[in-house]
């Protein structure tokens, strides 16, 4: 497809002069033939001007941007692997889809990942690109395959009773949370959805939530942000749920998710299911179709881990609900950072000695070699608690099993508690 820019004033003036001449006929010829010749002359000049003013096709424009980002931000993985050589191997239809996949990173140079899958099959269709992105981010071999396994018996070093108890480290009950991302196989991923898709997905999940509501283990209700939905809630109720860390924040303020198309059509198709005991939550319409999580204040990690697995089995067993899974990459998620397990397991742990300078710098120094992430209580780039409480979680999602993730959290808590008890020795 060729794109043209509007006529310049000088060309418009010349065409106007030609039109004036036409009123007297070509070279003074007022015959029909003369007028036809003048029309042809104007048309030819217009076509010539258009051809001279051809602008870059979308592919060339995206390639140029990616090249610029590679130079200015070499850590941007989407730009790093968006090469002319790979782009040339794609069909025109695939090129259009690939531009959308990499749009967030190409247009936000400071992105670290910078790409989002748009369809459940994208990881296979664009395998040469995604295999490199996954290898670079997750520190695995190109072409590495993922396996899912929730069986704790498959993990080495488990306590004899099989319980991952924080009482082993003389810790008080802590806020524990395990969540996973899931997408329904029949829908486009959030970045490629239209408003009708989002509303249809929400409606399908509301039927599933009715099944959960009727079960004694869940109960609860669904809260919708979609205007006109029977379960619609007002702004005040929504903000209260956000403040209680039950509902997710307004996505339309996130420039990265907006560029990826994930935050489009806000707030349609968004909401959350909350169990009666408020310890089981399902977000609908965030970065993935579903974010399913269990949380509670307690001392045994198995409690939230096992309940989440049971809930996933219940939801996936509901008629019409089928999760997108790749034979090579495991659970399909919008962002490659979550691919594989889609899992994040975390606790809020007080580390007053390691954070006595008012920052989590020391805690991060200890946690990083252990494969743990440390962040504030409100998420990334948020402050730690006044008492030194930090959110810690294993960083790995891909080429690691669910059982290994929860065991890694247990081991990390043990190491951080030992450093907290003897902070000077860990300097």
Distance between the termini: 62 Å
Shape label: globular
What is the N-to-C succession of helices and strands? Answer: HHHHHHHHHEHEHHEEEHEEEHEEH
- Assembly annotation: single chain
Beta strand count: 10
Helical stretch tally: 15
Report what the structure shows.
The chain has 427 residues and is an alpha+beta fold. Helix content is 39%, strand content 12%. The chain is built from 15 helices and ten strands. It has helices at 9-22, 32-52, 58-72, 77-80, 84-87, 92-101, 103-107, 122-125, 127-138, 195-213, 235-243, 255-260, 301-316, 361-367, 402-421, and strands at residues 174-182, 221-224, 271-274, 280-284, 290-298, 325-326, 330-331, 343-350, 372-375, 389-394. The strands form two sheets. The protein has an eight-stranded antiparallel β-sheet. Strands 6-7 form a two-stranded antiparallel sheet. α1 (9-22) runs antiparallel to α2 (32-52). The protein is globular. The N and C termini lie far apart (62 Å).
Give the helix/strand layout.
Elements: H1 9-22, H2 32-52, H3 58-72, H4 77-80, H5 84-87, H6 92-101, H7 103-107, H8 122-125, H9 127-138, E1 174-182, H10 195-213, E2 221-224, H11 235-243, H12 255-260, E3 271-274, E4 280-284, E5 290-298, H13 301-316, E6 325-326, E7 330-331, E8 343-350, H14 361-367, E9 372-375, E10 389-394, H15 402-421
Antiparallel strand pairs: 1-5, 1-8, 2-3, 3-4, 4-5, 6-7, 8-10, 9-10
Helix pairs in contact: 1-2
